[in-house]
Amino acid sequence: MKCPECGREVSKGSLYCPNCMTEVHWVKDFDTVETQMAKKQMEEPPAQPEEPEDPFEIRERDRFRFPNLLGRRWMILYALLGIMCVALLYNRAHSYPQLFTAAERMLTQENFEGALAAVQDALQQVPDSLEGNMLLARVLDKKGEWEDAVLVLKPLFADYPDSIPLYQEMAEILYREGQMDALKDLFKECPTTVYEYCRDYISLAPASDLVSGTYTRAQTISLTSPEPIIYYTINGFAPEPGSSILYERPITLTHGTYVIQAISVNSLGIVSDASSWKYIIVEETPDPPSVSPAAGIYHEDTQITIEVPDGCRAYYAFDKMPTAEGTEYVRPITMPVYSHTFYAILVAANGMVSEPTVVEYYLEY
């Protein structure tokens, strides 16, 4: 190290310059950034001019670089394809056909809750499916919720009026639960094809070989039905299975009025609607008609009425005998003033004429 005053060399470790006795301060050497850079330049050999790269070397280098880039892209593509495949498999496993099949299988295994969940998921995809809704009804029915099953099936008839399985499904539930009125209503206007396939659930009403009407002699009528059992009444009361008359032979009708009602019962015990006929049998000369009011003196407007039995016609006249060609009674008659004799007769369907009813009236206000 040199003296900072005189520049003379000072031995290392001396605190004073031997020439001028100036105090020397020793410090640790350090390099600045500039010093380090200068030292590096001095140590490195001079740079050689760059030569142009060989095209072959460029191709070789890129051959390894580009596949790496493309490899990353392929990895991304494979990942996306994998995600799509998983999604496709999930959707396929949760598609309508798969869910429907699963619901059918679980119903067979009596896993009703699982079947219900599966068929409900299926119907979320295809709400109007006939098969799906019918399967839902079957599941609800198996769970003991038959009324809910009926509510599911009812709206389907508007869209599927010719569906035989739909009619059969509903009929089976209604019959099993004893809903006979609803069962009858179900088939009242069903198509012919449905009728043929659901015949067991339908009971046809009886028919008579004699039309309703008035007859002048005794009649014998026969009732027929495709069902094995017929019950009937002859007094107009509604027939009941087991308590009304069991039809076993033709019915004979003599003089009088009959209102016959009959029902059929099929092999399943299903009762038909009632058939009804009215017969009037007139074999004899009718009795004189009943006339009101009674004979007497009256002081106010009064109406005269005639009671006309079934199978007869009434005719009347004042102060003379009426005939079947005279005035027919159709409504009450106003009593004329002063003194008059009122005549009334009945003419039966067989042409027989009754004796006249004669009544004396005197009207004065």
Describe the structure.
α3 runs antiparallel to α4, α4 packs antiparallel against α5 (about 130-140) and α8 packs antiparallel against α9. The chain folds into four domains: about 1-35, no CATH class; about 95-200, Serine Threonine Protein Phosphatase 5, Tetratricopeptide repeat (Alpha Horseshoe), CATH 1.25.40; about 205-280, Immunoglobulin-like (Sandwich); about 290-365, Immunoglobulin-like, CATH 2.60.40. A hairpin with an 8-residue loop joins β16 and β17 (about 355-365). The relative contact order is 0.06. The protein has about 375 residues and is an alpha+beta fold. It is elongated, with a radius of gyration of 58 Å. It is about 35% helix and about 20% strand. A five-stranded mixed β-sheet has the order 2-9-8-5-6, with no helix packed on it.
Salient structural properties:
single chain; 365 residues; alpha+beta; Serine Threonine Protein Phosphatase 5, Tetratricopeptide repeat; Immunoglobulin-like; 4 domains; 5-stranded mixed sheet; 17 strands; 35% helix; elongated
